[in-house]
Amino acid sequence: MGFILKAFYLLTAGLFLFSCESSYQHKFELALNAHIEAEDSLEAASGCKGIFENLKQQDTEELCQAMTEVSTAEFSVCEDTIRAALAANDLKLCTKPIERKLNLLEQERNKGLKLSAYPQHEIQPLINFQLPTEIQYRDLSEGYLATYGGVNDKEVILTFDDGPHPLISPAILKTLKATNTKVHFFVLGEHVQAYPDITRLMGTAGHSVGNHTWDHANMQKLTEAEGLAQVRNTQKIIFDTLGWVDPFFRFPYGNRVAEVEEYLKLNQMANFLWVVDSNDWKKVEDDGKTLRTNLMVINDVMAQLSKRGRGIILFHDVHLRTAELLPELLKRLYEAGYKTVMLQATDVSLRTHPPVLSENR
Predict the structure, then answer these.
(1) Short-list 120, 119, 115, 118, CA closest to 179
(2) Residues forming a β-bridge with 156
(3) Among 2, 23, 4, which Cα is nearest to 12's?
(4) pTM here?
(5) Do the Cβ atoms of 201 and 175 come closer than 8 Å?
(6) Strand partners, 311
(7) Which secondary structure element, helix H or strand E, spans residue 330, and what is its range?
(8) What one-character DSSP code corresponds to residue 172?
(9) Cα separation of 344 and 346, whole Å?
(10) Reduced to 3 states, what is the DSSP secondary structure of residue 277?
(11) For 62-106, what is each residue's pLDDT tens digit?
């Protein structure tokens, strides 16, 4: 009898543990841990994918309850997926409470900022400064590896990867226009294909538009032919959309490949890296319990910049926080006496006659 009772308790405990481990609260914990351990934005979002897939009504009810109970940090790591689910009407059972929690998250993330922008708000009346901007030219005839970008002290190059995004890129463009700031956008071919009008907005506003591969592929995991196709196809769609394309390329994750670097050099394209990483995709601090606020991101960028005094700064125009914090960051740069620089090729014909469109190596 004692053995039977022990077996029953073990079975009950096992079922309880399985139930807990299958709960949405536990899934959010796993997503949070995946985000903390991630080395890039793609890995950071991976833990949230399974939470919102193939939802049934009973699952949605449990998920809605979990989202109201999880911590702000846990909630934040799945913010993009949650917003997408709301837009798709997959969370209609709890739309209002989830929208309230998203608003609370925005307020907490922007706490401490004197100047912040939301994509749905007009930023122009809030800005009363103009950031000095200069166009500088670089010789690409032998290729060009850009880290500091050849800039002088108190000069920075602002770069935004992975767009265009239908909501966030236009918000960033508004702030840049209001502050007279020119930047480099490194776009994905598939996003240019999806949002050609926003790509054109970037170009007509006078910004640089460069190549960041077709779909953010890790070039180190591709064959040489596949890697070169990523460059060519993206270069072509930007050119077809704008009528020009800057001869500038950035490897996703900074994962350089010798064969592609050789190809860039032969085709007089600059290889853009960076020296200041905003890590704007990181939504929580490493302790896993603290929300990473926009003020923390700005302070981190300015601290890195103070050590170097100049160079290329990496942001992304696919994260909501980047649009929110950009006005305050630009004001901090202005107050610290920085100038923004946008690079162009000395041979301006490389823009309108890009040799990389050729199949020849």
Answers:
(1) 115
(2) 311, 340
(3) 4
(4) 0.89
(5) no
(6) 156
(7) helix 320-335
(8) H
(9) 6
(10) strand
(11) 889 999 999 999 999 999 999 988 988 888 889 999 999 999 999
